[in-house]
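Problem 12. The chain below contains 329 residues. Write out its predicted structure in C-alpha cell notation.
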Amino acid sequence: MPINSHLPAVLVVGGAGYIGSHMVLSLQQAGYQPIVLDNLSKGHADVLQEVTLLQGEMGDKAFLRSIFSNTSIAAVMHFGALIEVGESIRLPAKYYQNNVAATLNLLDVMLEFNVKQLVFSSSAAVYGEPHYTPIDEKHALLPINPYGRSKQMVEAILQDYAKSDGLQFAALRYFNAAGADSSGRVGERHEPESHLIPLVLQAAAGLRAAITIYGGDYPTPDGTCVRDYVHVTDLCAAHLLCLQALQTGKTNLIYNLGNGQGYSVQQVIDAAKRVTGKHIPVIQGPRREGDPAILVADATRAKQELNWQPVYSELDTIVRHAWQFMQQR
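Solution.
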C-alpha cells in the first residue's frame, strides 16, 4: 500500500506481532500512518490491513537507511524484541544480539536521519524478584535472566543517548499483556504459546489436554501465583499518550503499565470457565524456578503524568476478548 504523505509516519518495529499489531490499529485510529518493519519470525503478515509492511531486520543498517531515506519518519515504536525468558537462559547470545545489538543499530540510523522520538517496549522483567509489591518505578532494577537484562541494558542506552544526542524516549515496563482487540481483528498468536490466558483458553477449546498450574503452595490466598494482567488495547493507549508527550518536547519517560490489581492462576482459570462455559482440565505441577509469588504494578505515575486510564481492567473482559479472537480464528 502506498504511504500517505499527509499523515505523520510512525515506524512500528515488530508491528506484525501481538502488541505491535494492536498498536498499528491504535495509530490508524488516531490519525497516524503506521509503517511496519518486521522480519515475520514471530509476527503474522495477515493481521496487517491497509498498512505498509517492510520485511527485514531491525539490525540491518543498510535496510534501515533505505527506509529512512525514502520516507519521512516522525517517530519509532519498538516492539521488536525476543521475549521468551526460558529461551533467553538457553540462548543468551541470541537475545543480546537481537534485543541489544540490533537496537543499537536502529538507534544509530534513527539519529543519522535526525529521528529522535522513540517509544520502547520494556518489561517488568527489569525488576527481577520484587522486594515489595505493588512495584513502582523506584524499585531496584535487578533482572534475573538474559531477557530482563537485555531490556535493562536498552533502557540504560536510551538514557545515555538522551544525554549525548538529544534522543527523546519513553520506556514502558509491561506487566502481563493480555486480551485482544474487542472487534476480534487481531489477538495473541504466539508459536509456541507461553502466556497463561491463551493456554487456559486452548484447554477450554480442546486444543490442549489440560492446563498445568506450577505450584499451589505460594503465600497467596489460593496458593497459586498472582499476576497483574493489562489489556493490550490499554497498553497501546499508553504508548499513544507517550508518543504525544514526546511530540510536545518531553523525554526520559519511564512508566509501569498494569492495572494494579493482581489475579491468581486459579482466578484466571475460573474466569475462563465463566466466559467459555467449558470444563477446563487442570494438572498440578511443581513450582518453577524464578517464579515470584506476586507481581503487581503500581502504575500511579502513568495515570498521573499521562492521564492514562485502563478501560478494560476486569479480568472477565480480558478473557472474553481473548476468547472471541480464538473463536473467530
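Discussion. The mean pLDDT is 94. Students who got a different answer should revisit the alignment rule from Section 12.3.
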